[in-house]
């Protein structure tokens, strides 16, 4: 059987290496998670189990790919930054994206029972992913500011929306109508006057999202356990397993970056 | 909080639409499956449970993405063909690749217990994926011929290799050494004279791999059950669920394509 | 002087090979030719000298790059088709585009005096270029139909526009206003009733544009002289110089392609 | 005539915008200039007329495209840097490359007679071009260091090579053989002992190449005349025409960049 006669088809594969000397950001995003969250009875506007599960799956990815220096997640999305000069998979876009997103998806299902003990997974979820090159540190910071601002805006809206539905008995359509065209200040006011809620006192995980970074040696910040429960797996990884910190802080201002100068020096 | 100030970073995303009027093939491939197969005690050279699990996961992908007309799998890889003029995700390469590979990976974990009841999954696996454009029908046929020829060559080698290890007591290194430089005919001869095996009588799933195609209406070929066990999920999909046939036949010659003319007419 | 310390910058060049087994079309287009045509007092709506010059420059390109099988030009644009399986410059998009466009531009200036003896070239013109892959023969035919339909539509409009300006004394603005929203049939009617012109009797070069193809051996169709006048150059190329035919015929219907079956067989 | 039926072919054009916030460098390179230089009897190893012509053509390009901040040329190549945030042609790679290279080529022919009065142009030359994105200032500096180091290395070699041929009567093959494997220091030594030439005293244009930058206002450095001789053209451009300086200095060290801080601030 002449193998070589057909091998020419391999030449149709196109090179998709990312530009050198750029930060590489892979962002994954749940496919059809509106329906997924309904089928699995997610608490609205924020389901703690789902948020923790997302971050644990992200942690699995970060443990596997040592060149990821920082992750940021909110809602059903997560972003992963590879260090500027990573040579992983020769910086091939498709290799980087698909390894990250498939490990995230398989981890999500693998560790689901740890977070949703009373709620069986009904069907396997899909995620999409994209990869983006950012030439400068400022571009990278602005990327995370963009995602965190998005988190804030969505959370403020969703908090109002669901309060109106859950506590005032509005239909989703009525709630949507009431919030149409409102400014952030209007929504803060609604929360305060109608529900006695000071938005800024809500848990930071909802308002800021979740940041994963590797601990510097000797650091004793709250460390998360490794992503897998299997005794076999843990045993293999105990000694070399990376220590990862989970934060829910502002990354739009300079403080975060000033406190973690090693991130941009990577 | 000025959202717009940061949104410029979105402009760094690059358009990666695939050329129109080409067959789009997504191929996924297990990451580190040599180790994965050892950890999970896969039977060598072919583990029926693993092969079935791979095909079941591919079926889940095919059920979700209706524009996939044909899949082909062997070992730890699977290829998915989208119809020539699919407009799914505007033919964006990253969207197509990542949705396919993440759903494959999450399905693989989700349905693992159905095939490996006595063997707990030790850790979540990753898969990579690539997408390739093929302009002509002949290119597409040659692609599958390439993969099926690869299946044959690897299977012949692996069958010999493991027979020598398992039945003749050779070490892997000795077995490898013995097979070095042998032709297909030599390996067939070894199997026949030393192990009384006629290679061509081995199960076709090992020698040919697995083909998934959609059944034409009214077709009563062996139909596989839907990929998910959840009563909830099945209920939702019972009526509209696609009927998919699983074949283990030659796709290098013309017979397969002549018997399924609708594939290339899609 | 350490050369190697800097050579890493070469790795930033990105591979841009065109997909195999596709027709490659390079289309060049004059930059700012509205102004260029005014400065050089082009006859409106069609300047025979300019049209001939464009085609002669295209011929120079076709003589240099033997893998070009067909060219089509109209107004200030020209398209060049490379044969489907050309390996020229490893099918690198930037190499193909820039070689074609730069030779076209330098030839345009080089042979200008042959066509504009009484009109000195005032400044060197620029052209842009793009390259497009077409997977099927039908796509390629449709590409040329698109350009020839464009030629017809623009020429019909321009013929009316300039007749109104040149013979009826309308200002350009008035002429434009009069033609706004008119159909092809309206413009044919204006030409016939107001100027006694039957559009279909106008020279085919204006209505159909110009096609360049290589002559089959023994063919005695009107052959154009080689693009260069220099005795030196001609001497070098006399014997091997390709014979090129210039046609002004319909390429939307099937006749042209039926009469030149070798084009698509290339 | 149904235009729209064919217009779908336009959708096969692929977006090729360059990554934002990167320096864009277009490098053009003469096609077959070994032969071109022989046909036109270029003085070896350096022909002043040819070097000046190349720089004058580059100047034409720089005058036309205001976003070019810096050019560097040597031998038959020239590099053009667009400012980091240029929006010209929406940063489309093919538009940028082809406009630059075609204007360079047409200018080369247009102004040829000014530099080669006694030597008629025998045929129109072609140039290829490529575009490369550089994320950081250091990458950009290293790019120019790479080209200038290349200029030095080639010039040292060529100077030795031609001295051996022209003054010692070696054949080209003998000269090549003699220089095979020699270090820079060896070649300096040959020049000094055999030809009494101190390499460092050779004209800087040969050793360093040519840099074109825009003059800061009020600057009275040696200014080159505009690229075109036509009285018509000059008249149009007299007042707005950019003032460009030509330098032959080291750009590998920091001095050049320190003296021209505005370049990287652009």
From TrEMBL, chains A, B, C, D:
GO terms for biological process: tRNA modification. Adds a GMP to the 5'-end of tRNA(His) after transcription and RNase P cleavage. This step is essential for proper recognition of the tRNA and for the fidelity of protein synthesis. Also functions as a guanyl-nucleotide exchange factor/GEF for the MFN1 and MFN2 mitofusins thereby regulating mitochondrial fusion. By regulating both mitochondrial dynamics and bioenergetic function, it contributes to cell survival following oxidative stress. It is an enzyme of class 2 (transferase). It catalyses: a 5'-end ribonucleotide-tRNA(His) + GTP + ATP + H2O = a 5'-end phospho-guanosine-ribonucleotide-tRNA(His) + AMP + 2 diphosphate + H(+). Pfam families: Thg1, Thg1C. Binds 2 magnesium ions per subunit. Its cofactor is Mg(2+). Mg(2+) 2 binds at residues 29, 76. This is tRNA(His) guanylyltransferase. Homotetramer. Interacts with MFN1 and MFN2; functions as a guanyl-nucleotide exchange factor/GEF for MFN2 and also probably MFN1. Its EC number is 2.7.7.79. Belongs to the tRNA(His) guanylyltransferase family. The lineage of its organism: Eukaryota, Metazoa, Spiralia, Lophotrochozoa, Mollusca. GTP binds at residues 29-34, 75-76.
């Amino acid at each position: 059987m002449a193998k070589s006669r057909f091998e020419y088809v391999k030449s149709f594969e196109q090179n998709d290496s990312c530009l050198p000397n750029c930060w590489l950001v892979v962002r994954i995003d749940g496919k059809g998670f509106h329906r997924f969250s309904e089928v699995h009875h997610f608490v609205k506007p924020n389901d703690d189990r789902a948020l923790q599960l997302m971050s644990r799956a992200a942690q699995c990815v970060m443990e596997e790919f040592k060149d990821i220096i920082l992750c940021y997640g909110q809602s059903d999305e997560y972003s992963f930054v590879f260090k500027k000069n990573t040579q992983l998979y020769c910086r091939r876009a498709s290799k980087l994206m698909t390894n990250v997103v498939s490990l995230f998806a398989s981890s999500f299902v693998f560790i689901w029972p740890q977070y949703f003990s009373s709620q069986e997974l009904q069907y396997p979820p899909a995620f999409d992913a994209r990869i983006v090159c950012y030439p400068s540190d400022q571009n990278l910071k602005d990327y995370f500011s963009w995602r965190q601002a998005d988190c804030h805006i969505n959370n403020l809206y969703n908090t109002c929306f669901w309060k109106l539905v859950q506590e005032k008995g509005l239909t989703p359509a009525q709630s949507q109508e009431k919030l149409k065209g409102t400014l952030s200040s209007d929504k803060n006011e609604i929360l305060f006057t109608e529900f006695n809620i000071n938005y800024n006192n809500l848990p930071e995980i909802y308002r800021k999202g979740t940041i994963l970074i590797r601990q510097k040696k000797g650091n004793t910040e709250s460390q998360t356990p490794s992503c897998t429960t299997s005794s076999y797996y843990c045993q293999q990884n105990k000694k070399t397993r990376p220590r990862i910190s989970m934060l829910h802080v502002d990354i739009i201002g300079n403080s975060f970056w000033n406190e973690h100068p090693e991130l941009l020096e990577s």
